[in-house]
Amino acid sequence: MNTKDSDKRVINQRELQAYRAALKLQIFKKIRQAFNERKHGEGFSQKDLAYALGIDESVLSKRLNGKHDMRLETFSDLARGLECKLDVMLRPISEIERLSEEAKRNFEPQFKPSIYMSTGNAPLTTYGTSTEAPTTMTFKST
């Protein structure tokens, strides 16, 4: 696929850094999620993961708390220690943006949630999306 010269642009460093940070955050969230699932499901601890990786528990703690700049090797090691595999999917950004816009249109509520409150014996009514009926609760003041 050829790109016209007028369509080409140089990606600035700030944009590249923001993209890297967002990618790292996505991976980090998945690692934390996998760790928490094993922790709550099997009683797997930071100590267990540190032992499996052959690192000090304090180093692991800094990594899991986001206090350490994560590199590909670190993500890979953590995933392996959690007995997981990182999958990679490469898609054009334009496709992701298009799908994101379609998802917003398809799942956007017709009415925005709002809450009406007053004091005394007046009802508290909340309205959700158009598919939900309003909920009314009465609170009596004492």
Count of DSSP H/I helices:
5
Helix content: 40-55%
Order of helices and strands: HHHHHEEE
Shape: elongated
Low-confidence spans: 111-142
Strand content: 5-15%
Please compute the radius of gyration using only Cα atoms: 24 Å
Q: Average pLDDT, to the nearest integer?
A: 76
Main beta sheet: strand number and arrangement? 3 strands, antiparallel
What does this structure look like?
This protein has five helices and three strands; from the N terminus they run αααααβββ. It has 142 residues and is mostly helical. A three-stranded antiparallel sheet has the order 1-2-3, with no helix packed on it. Strand 1 and strand 2 form a beta hairpin. Helix 2 (46-53) packs across helix 3 (57-64) and helix 2 crosses helix 4 (72-81). The N and C termini lie far apart (72 Å). Mean pLDDT is 76; it is low at 111-142.
Keywords, separated by commas or semicolons:
142 residues, mainly alpha, three-stranded antiparallel β-sheet, 5 helices, disordered C terminus
Helix and strand layout, with pairings?
Blueprint: H1 13-42, H2 46-53, H3 57-64, H4 72-81, H5 93-107, E1 114-116, E2 123-127, E3 135-138
Antiparallel strand pairs: 1-2, 2-3
Helix pairs in contact: 2-3, 2-4
Short overview:
This protein is mainly α and 142 residues long.
